[in-house]
Amino acid sequence: MANKTYSFYPGCSSQNKASSSNYLVSTNSMCQKLGITLNEVPDWNCCGASIGYGGGGELPRIVLSARNLALSEQHNAGQDMVATCAACWLASREAKERLDHSPQMKADANEALKEAGLEYKGQAQARHMVEVLIEDIGYDALKAGVKKPLQGVKFAGYVGCQTNRPFGIAGESFENPLYLDNLVEAMGGEAVKSYDQKVTCCGGALAFSEPEKSQKQIKDIIESAYDHGADMIVTPCPLCQANVEIYQGEVNKRYGTKFNIPVTYYSQLITVAYGGTAAEAGLNGHVVAPAKLAEIAGK
């Protein structure tokens, strides 16, 4: 369909056998159905995620992502580097912005990269997979490939923080981004457009250090989805997916609620709508099973 090729940076959580490996499974299935070729960046490294901001120092944090970009330029020349993880995309995008606008930062980073025989040239773009879907393919073309519309299923589009600020998706509002709603509708599902928690933070790493604060955020995110009639939540971020799904049991204990709502990836929706099986969509990788998606996949 698309016949496009990209350099692929899977990131730690979405790699094979990691916590969000079903994201990788569904991404690979989605890309196969869309005619997208992903060339994995050889020997890629962690982006640093939150700890890079917490105590790693500015230059080391930037160099982590500069190394991935340099490897992409070296091995997958002429291809945009695409990430599925929101944190990986944010770190890569920030590093590129900083390096491309500061000759001194670029020189310092390349001095460090020289030890590994690498050089950041600034040729590769850092993009999120949803940017590829929206900007390079488009909603109309995505809709044209649907074989099993997600009819009768209501989705709350939970964007979260990192694909929304400070960069965001081109043309989208910071307060009310609509791209997940539009992707849901392109797949034949119903988007809960009145969902008011789509850009609320899930708490991120506070789930470990200050669980009461994170669980309050998660409660608000889920409660609003229920209040607006959603059958499930869809997100572009593996950390958002993990926090909002995995901690529902803890939230229920703390607040006396009975939450049990699936939290899915846009790539799973597209895979199922394009005729993929439950296995191809990675639906077996959930704590809360997305039964309605599995039912459509089995038709």
Question: Could you write a compact summary of the structure shown?
Answer:
The protein has helices at residues 21-34, 49-54, 58-75, 86-101, 103-113, 129-137, 139-144, 179-186, 206-209, 211-227, 238-246, 248-255, 266-273, 291-297; strands at 4-9, 36-40, 81-83, 126-128, 154-157, 190-191, 232-235, 263-265.
Characterization of this structure:
There is one protein chain. This protein has two domains: 4-129, Glutathione S-transferase Yfyf (Class Pi), Chain A, domain 2; 143-297, Rossmann fold (3-Layer(aba) Sandwich), CATH 3.40.50. The protein is globular and about 55 Å long. The protein starts with a strand and ends with a helix. It has 299 residues and is α/β, with parallel strands linked by helices. The mean pLDDT is 94. Helix content is 47%, strand content 10%. The strands form two sheets. The chain has a four-stranded parallel beta sheet. A four-stranded parallel beta sheet has the order 6-5-7-8, with helices on both faces.
Helical content class: 40-55%
Architecture per CATH nomenclature, i.e. the level-2 architecture of the largest domain: 3-Layer(aba) Sandwich
Write down the overall geometry: globular
* Proportion in β-strands: 5-15%
Task: Please report the first level of CATH classification, the CATH class of the largest domain.
Answer: Alpha Beta
Question: What key phrases describe this protein's structure?
Answer:
299 residues, alpha/beta, Glutathione S-transferase Yfyf (Class Pi), Chain A, domain 2, Rossmann fold, 4-stranded parallel beta sheet, globular
